[in-house]
Amino acid sequence: MRLVITLSMLLLGAALQALAGPHRIGDIVVHQPWARELPPVSHTGAAYLSIHNTGTQADRLLSATSPVAARVEMHSHEHAAGMMRMQQVEAVALPAGQQVDFAPGGLHLMLIDLRQPLAAGQDFTLELNFEHAGSMQVQVEVRKNAPPAKSAKRTRSR
Fold first, then answer.
1. Are 61 and 130 in contact (CB under 8 A)?
2. What is the pLDDT of residues 20-76, one digit of tens each?
3. Which residue among 4, 61, 112, 154 is the one 20 to 30 A from 127 at the CA level?
């Protein structure tokens, strides 16, 4: 009986570790997907993450979906006439060997017409659709406190 309990605990630990760690499909690795907690009356939210293309071929993020929102759009923030302006983008380039960060004040995944509140301590599924790598699901952690907004730097070599 003790052996069964020990093995069960090891398997549970491995499963939780897999959820907490990076998500991978082919050469695409997604790190730290998260969203900010919102008041229950909010109709829109945003999800953030980092996508590292470890391969030698460029890829593109084409779309995203989630059961918590009627639709998910990719947006960027741009400076125009001295003001920050949000703009929808059709796809996000993922250059070979580089990482693209989705962060406050830059690229983000806009969650439109939320079907449920985003409450700290919960998580939700986000499906990412890539041109070459295919589709992958990631678990997005909802956080109470978010890191400060980054500059609009979009990619970096790894």
1. yes
2. 578 999 999 999 999 999 998 999 999 999 999 999 999 999 999 999 999 999 999
3. 154
